[in-house]
Amino acid sequence: MTSAEVRRVLGQPQSVTTEDDFRDPGAKLVVWKYRDVLVLLGSQDSVRGVWLRTRQVSTPRGLRVGDPVSRVEQLYGFAAFRDAATLEYSASEEQRMHVIRVVVKAGVVKQIFLGWLLD
Question: What is the pTM of this model?
Fold first, then answer.
């Protein structure tokens, strides 16, 4: 998905921030902020990932911010990586950098990232 496609779906972002892409000198990483989501755009004008920040939006399987960890496990099963603050699920063994990362606190989902990890 490109930035033009994001604008068609979500409209104009509330704010835009940019920073240098440490992997590619001269390139930028761009974050478009909306009320419920952050959209991360990479150097090639493509979506690198999306952070879900409120209950207003969900993952394709229905996970939302505010859900208990038990709901994460019910929808996604055993996490490929897990610690006290994070559950992470890879798209596949071949695409381990394409993930759903669930940030939790006190057993409750606080944020959800869907996208590609930076290496």
Answer: 0.88
